[in-house]
Amino acid sequence: MKVSSSDLARHRRAGDPLPPLRARVEATRDDLELRGALGVMAERFNGAREEALAEPGMADLKARGIAIRAHGVTDLRANLQRFEESLRALGVHVHHARTGADAAATIGDIAVAANAHRVVKSKSMATEEIHLNDHLESRGVEVIETDLGEWIVQQAHERPSHIIAPAVHKTRPQVTKLFSGLAGHELEDRREELCAYAQTRLRDAFLTADLGVSGANFGCADTGTLVLVTNEGNGRLTTSWPRVHVALMPVDKVIAHFDDLATMVPLLVRHATGQKLTSYVTMIHGPRRAGELDGPEELHVVLLDGGRTALLGTQFEEMLRCIRCGACLNVCPVYATIGGHAYGGVYPGPMGAVLTPLLSSGREGSELPGATSLCGACSEVCPVGIPLHDLLVELRAVPGSAERSRRRTVFFALWSRAWAVPAVYRWSTRLANLARRHPRLTRRLPVARAWCDGRALPDPVSATFHAWWRSERSTG
Ligand code: SF4
Asked: How many angstroms is it from 61 CA to the middle of ligand 1?
């Protein structure tokens, strides 16, 4: 199946068929414009993060963050119970959603009950996970994304390609062309002009929306505080201007104490954008109270399970520590080559290669753990100590994963048997060495061509280990 990178970028509705991984990789790998955009992103984010983490005290901050998230996951059920009690005490309506479809239906019901015709949304990967926009639109509710990157991909009828920078796959000239088409006249290819255009369009959306939907970066169990970490101010407008606010919060976002924010917010921000603090850190304590000037009349929190609690007590539990900083995407050589859309799911990069098959019980993304280099850069950079590359290896061994396909199992079983015979082992290593000495010839072999495509064969060694061993023994 032949697809292009723009086919992959296009918005898909839940259940729409996905091209096979090989076709997705081939489509994006050769898109030089995409590779350029990803290169700029990686340089900017990685440079800023490394600079921020060179400051004194960062190792302590990370150690505290790991401990907070580890306890948060171990005590998840107790923390959730306390969080719910704290929310109710503040006058918040709490809803539980076992699946993404339940969560979308709940938010749809809230919108209908509130007689909402227009919804403004701040960036939230959880809402992408549950295909909220499609659901609300199917119920006659207009949805407007208000994060600039999300608005760009929404206008282009595309999907986000990065968890903190949704439109990272687009270059500025592409955005200029898109916005000029929307405006009906040529806009200048200048950041300021493009932002000003988006701002004008979005201001009207905030003023006319009946309902605001947000995610939550953290939820504090002891105080019921919802925390949003943003840079554009759209999160604050989304949660304070419309008369009803719905926050969709995956259950793993709960932390035990409000005081833990002093660790978690700087840790998240430094790893995400390299800033000390984002421009806006919004803390929401319930709906508007008498005498307050802003805030919604009604506040709903939808707690999304979506397969998360099923991971408690398993070897994959550590994945629930993830704070969605995106750092593992920025250092990943696979993500840098193929971008986010080739992963196929909502969550790309190393965290997505772990999370997508886990949250879907293997129905989606079972091939992703095999499409990783296992270089370990993701685990090294992760602020909450998730051993991503170990989890990827464990996922490769899960029954039903693409790595356990019948073809591969038979192939490796035969290989293991063959190498158990010393003569076959010696013969095959000699043959491999011969292949490395004649790379041009090797590339012509159909079986080797795919492997050699984009990879350099290692330099030939002067002698095999066995030959070296024999000569050592004869001289020694
Ligand atoms: S797995 Fe770690 S590095 Fe990746 S997004 Fe989550 S917290 Fe960040």
From this structure: 15
